[in-house]
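1st attempt posting a full record on here, be nice pls
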Amino acid sequence: MSYTLTVTDEIIRAALIITKEASSRTAFLIFENDGENAKIVATDGHIMGVFRLALPADVPSFSFALPSAAFASVAKKHTITLEIKDSRAVISQGAASYQCNALAVPFDWRRVITDTFSGEHAYFDPDLIYNFSKIAKILGRRLMPYVVPNGEEGAASVRIGENFFGIAMPFRVAEKGEGGYTSTPSWVR
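the predicted structure (as tokens):
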């Protein structure tokens, strides 16, 4: 089976913000189409982003992963074309193209997404949360991402417009109370 996907450079550049810190073994962009919704999923193990795509109705269902390194030279203002035939992918942008194997999706990314979020406070790496602000800017959103925490045991949800959903894993605070990170140190008073 073969088919062609067209994706904007903004979506790919935004997805690469998420995978840039991941090791080459875990840095993938996952492409899925279930017949109703097409998605690109990017994760580094600490944050994940799911981008909804608009595809023509005649594109068949698919599920595959491509190494994020395959998109390393994505330039601004150029649409990206993915041609998938059997298990090979050709990624083209303008006159440049790159070929690689389309891989099986390496993990069930849906297992870390919950249906409801408690809003309970949690601690997050500010750099990871800032990555969502960078994504919002690339996607042309002027508003900050909307983050809803889910306590120390679950991932926070991150919304950027109607076509992006993300999650961020919290820190697990080891020390609580006096001398820990959840109270004001006595020497400040």
